[in-house]
Amino acid sequence: MDNAEFKKQAHLMVDWMADYLENIENRPVRAPVKPGEITAQIPISPPQHGESMARIMNDFCQIVVPGITHWQHPSFFAYFPANASPPSILAEMLVATMGPVCMLWQTSPAATELETQVLEWLRELFGLPLGLVGVIQDTASTATLCSLLAARESATAHRTNQYGLKTVSPLTLYCSAEAHSSVAKAVKILGLGSDNLRSIPVDSQFAMQPDLLKDAIQRDIAAGCRPFCVVATLGTTSTSGFDPLVPIGDLCRQHDLWLHVDAAWAGSALAAPEFRWMINGISKADSIVINPHKWLLTNFDCTAHFVRHPEELVKALSIQPEYLKTTNQQLVTDYRDWGIPLGRRFRALKLWFVLRYYGIEGIQKHIRVHVKLAQELGDLIEAEEDFQLLVPPTLTLLCFRYRPTGNVSEQTLNSINQQLIESLNDSGEVYLTHTRIQDQFCLRFAIGAQRTERQHVRQAWATIKETARSLPL
What we know:
Distance between the termini: 61 Å
CATH class of the largest domain: Alpha Beta
Shape: globular
Number of strands: 11
Radius of gyration: 24 Å
Mean pLDDT: 95
Number of domains: 3
Largest sheet: 7 strands, mixed
Strand content: 5-15%
Helix content: 40-55%
Strand order of the largest sheet: 1-7-6-5-4-2-3
């Protein structure tokens, strides 16, 4: 493809992108396809001869787009948001054009130095304490894995990297029963053994109970285990629980445990000072993860990973083959030593674009509008006799269920609500996910898509009520 053709096709695709965003509400939120439907439209073998971009783009529109769930749709209320704002999209286009691999300072000095400064901007924006140093990882799962690896090595004087786990006492890790699945996955990857992960029960507000954490630590010490890390969550995935950092941090200091804080979703709210109650006690944390690619207008993937002792992270992860040594490496930061992959994308550019385009004021408005919408929806749910609000919105996540009046068993209620969410998602008008709270099947409603406004939340609520009340009992 010559430059003239590239320019022509690029302009056509930008037009398509702008039209897509402008008309996204006309599409079904969740892809209305059956398993295998996309595969059936794709030839078994690649073409022998090259095809025109016109034909390729036509197939993209006819085959691929109908099979996409539209995360930027204003009626997307599933999982957590995945904002892809125009400034971040434009930055990604520039990065894709340049195609840098930002593993060492010298492979793209601007990428390294911009990342350093933008992460310092984020630390200040979130009100995090001085001393926390940031790096961009791909996802929170990776950041958590890296933190737990650093915690493991710190607790064993870096013996496990050299000699293996067999040379140390069983290492035990603690998190709440509501912690994200990435913690359990990290335990598997690190070879710690699932039996050494302690799931601490939560209280009525879905927060880890420090007294039970203390008991679990003491039992493990008495049994000859080596407690080494606690993962506290700010904004749990199912129920928006917030673990209390002050007493958890005190226990970590008392027993010399690494404290990792998972604020992947809720952490973006720290941009607004009124939500910084959640990080009371953060000074005792050794690492914290926040995902700008969820609620901070920066498209996937972009995770901010802050650590108090970056030298522990680097020592746990660094490998120094001859071909990666450079003459100036003592004077610069080589971020390939801060994470798992050697190759790294230039993620800092889109974050820089977003922070500059919206500014602190615009980001705070974005957060506050969604929190207000969630509070309004919570009031609407509580006003209906045949709906039950199980998790009121602390930020923008609500959990509720349809509970028709009369003597209806819990089993029947679970079945009705499962039918309800399937009907809603099949309609294409709205997309929700579910969770279970004390074995109660309920709808999980997460507000945060960039284009979501009050009318979208109100329309979704009207659809939910209408659909629920039309179900056969």
